[in-house]
Amino acid sequence: MVLVSKSKTPLNGSTKSPKWFGFRDNPTFTTQEINDLYGSHPIGSFEYNSKILAIRGYTTGLLYARLLADTWVTPQQPIGQNIKFSDLKVSSIVRLHIGIDIGDNAKTVFTLTGTTKGYERVIVIDSIETEGDDIDYNEIINQFNTWLLPYYSMFNVKIKTIRPDSADSLFVKTLRNNVFTDAIDVISSNKATIKERVTMKEQLLHRNRMIFTDKPGAQKLKVMLSKIRTDGKGGHLDENDPWIDYNDSLDYSITPDMHGIMAQ
Asked: What is the CATH number of the domain that holds 80?
């Protein structure tokens, strides 16, 4: 943590600006440790400003746009944020979860996300929004089952849970009774705070640990993330925009593994 002087008025009565002490003023830190600290959070993020620069106050602008890259993972380039679905090794994915956000003024969104061994990487397999306006729960679930079936054939028991928005308990019960297989648990979404969810995604993108397949839905989710704005206090603005539904669906699919992801 950055240390600051306790008094803004020097004891000698000088009117010069007070000295602010940073990491380099601490003799116990090596150069490498200082560089690691500066690289521990995305530049410009709320966490970077508050924990690294000790700036108190609001941040403005887009949350994820500056962190999203077009680099593709290839045999020659192991680090990137995109991968062709055809190049994906099913054996490298240990577990998957599905997040579902029920849009009040927009579409319902489903997102399938997997994690690799040791929670090293999060892979956004696909995301899709429902078709049609004002459709009921039965139609939402019919579309969900149709979308999920091919992925269930591919990943099978690696799909651990389906995580609908916990705010809609009736939908959770209806889905639990009507999903095409009882091998996947239907559980309400985790109660992580918005700030925790934002920090997790910032860290994953900052360290190239979140990868999107070339499926149109996964790439659309990436575009949606690029539109989300900060609330200035470490969270995001929610103005009933469609990108928030995509964002929440993604969050519900990765928060079951949040502790493992952040520990890694």
From this structure: 3.30.420.280
Provide the residue type at 247 as one letter. Answer: N
| Mean pLDDT calculated for residue range 125-134 | 93
Range of the domain at 212: 65-263
Residue 43 lies in a domain: no
Following DSSP, what letter does each residue of 103-154 receive, concatenated? -SSS--EEEEEEEEGGG--EEEEEEEE--SSS--HHHHHHHHHHHHHHHHHH
Q: In this predicted structure, what is the pLDDT of residue 128?
A: 97
In a domain, 38, yes or no: no
Which pLDDT belongs to residue 216? 98
Cβ-proximal residues to 9 (8 Å cutoff; 6+ apart), any chain: 18
* Percentage of residues of the chain with pLDDT beyond 70: 76
Q: Nearest to residue 61, comparing CAs of 46, 47, 50?
A: 46
Give the integer Cα–Cα distance in Å for 256 and 3. Answer: 35
- For 219, the token pair is 């790439």
Residue 245 in contact with residue 103, Cβ under 8 Å? Answer: yes
Would the pLDDT of 113 be above 90? yes
Contact between 17 and 11 (Cβ < 8 Å): no
Q: What is the pLDDT of residues 238-264, one digit of tens each?
A: 888 899 999 999 999 999 999 999 887
Question: Which of 126, 122, 94, 100 has the alpha carbon at shortest distance from 112?
Answer: 126
The answer to whether 113 touches 254, Cβ cutoff 8 Å, is: yes
In a domain, 112, yes or no: yes
216: which 2 tokens? 């149109």
In a domain, 56, yes or no: no
Number of domains in the chain: 1
